[in-house]
Amino acid sequence: MIKVENLTKTYADFKALDGVSFEVQKGEIIGFLGPNGAGKTTTMRILTGFFPPTSGKVEIDGFDVFNDPVEVRKRIGYLPENTPLYQDMEVYSFLRYIAELKDVEPEKKNQHIKNIMERCGISHMKNEIISRLSKGYKQRVGLAQALIGDPKVLILDEPTIGLDPKQIIEIRNLIKELGKEKTIILSTHILPEVAVTCSRVIIINEGKIVAEDTPDNLENKVSGVAKVIVTVRGGSPDLIKTRLQGINGVSNVTVIKNHAGLTDLSIQSEKDVDVRDKVSSIIVQNNWGLIEMHRETLGLEEIFLKLTKKEK
Ligand SMILES: Nc1ncnc2c1ncn2[C@@H]1O[C@H](COP(=O)(O)OP(=O)(O)O)[C@@H](O)[C@H]1O
Ligand SMILES: [Mg+2]
User: Fold this and answer.
1) Is residue 310 part of a domain?
2) How far is the CA of 281 from the centre of ligand 2 (A)?
3) Residue 140 sits in which domain range?
């Protein structure tokens, strides 16, 4: 759906993007993750045709952004950084205005806007002046604006920046919901964002892509070990530890805690080795109870720091 080839962007003599290439398949929600100044906004502006790259190529749904800008714009909904809304307009009039700009068929316009307002949870705010809305509602209006014309692709530049925790959860859920039918790229400099919302993460730093994978895999790749946490009922911590340590591929087992007959253990294995099947069968064979098992998902923060430092 989106194909980006070897983008570079130079501002005066500063290279903001340096050979950025990636592809996004239909239906993916991609997290574009990087610290401030990494080049996220620059990439998104090129993708939406806001300005051209210094070199390189972008295709959206088979159309070249610079040869077919009209076709491309029909397919993209864009939520720019800092949501520039017409602050003096009422929500509904603003959305009508955007619908006119986007050439939505006049007889379908009202129903279309109504559906979108419903979806974004702003129907009850339709007659409010935008400047009087909370930041969370403004962001919803921004998303609603991006949805007008029913584009296949959504490009969202830091959609949760400046929101409070409750608003962040609401916007994330809305994005996830939209991801069921749209292809989405969202940028963020906040890690939990991608872990929660995205199927794939592209990490960018100083204008270059430094990593690209699922949130889970990225973690394993960089940390070099995979970690599984289990809670076992019954048995003695020492015996459980010894049995689990005997599993092929397991490099280390640590008892985290033992209380009320339950033992929490951390099982490390080499990366790319999934020991979960063997762990569960050993526990069952010993007549212990497998109360809980999950892969350790903390540490995305460390990965991010490692990846973005390595480049310096
Ligand atoms: N119009 C501009 N003129 C000069 N430098 C710019 C301009 N826009 C962005 N930059 C620089 O390019 C780099 C990437 O910026 P940007 O794409 O906004 O990063 P991000 O969105 O990841 O924070 C930054 O170092 C920024 O200072
Ligand atoms: Mg930015």
Assistant:
1) no
2) 48
3) 2-213
Are 21 and 123 members of one domain?
Answer: yes
* 80 touches ligand 1 (CB under 6 Å): no
Cβ burial of 93 (10 Å; 0-12, 13-18, 19+) is middle
For the chain, how many structural domains are there in total? 2
Rounded distance, CA 180 to CA 94, Å? Answer: 26
Which atom of ligand 1 is the closest one to the Cα of 9?
A: 12
Claim to verify: residue 166 and residue 86 sit in the same structural domain: yes
**Domain end call among 155, 188, 213:** 213
pLDDT digits (tens, 9 = 90+) for 186-212: 998 877 778 788 999 999 999 999 889
Residue 36 CB–ligand 1 contact under 6 Å: yes
DSSP code at position 130? G
Same domain as 273, residue 198: no
Cα–Cα nearest to 32, from 65, 79, 75: 79
Is 205 near ligand 1, meaning CB less than 6 Å away? no
**C-alpha count within 13 angstroms, C-beta hemisphere, residue 194:** 28
pTM, whole model, 2 decimals?
0.76
**Which residues have a beta carbon within 5 Å of ligand 2, which is an ion?**
40-41, 81
Q: Which residues of 109-142 are buried (b: 16+ CB within 10 A; e: fewer)?
A: beebbeebbebbebeebeeeebeebeebbbbbbb
pLDDT tens-digit map of 116-171: 999 899 999 999 999 999 988 999 999 999 999 999 999 999 998 878 888 888 88
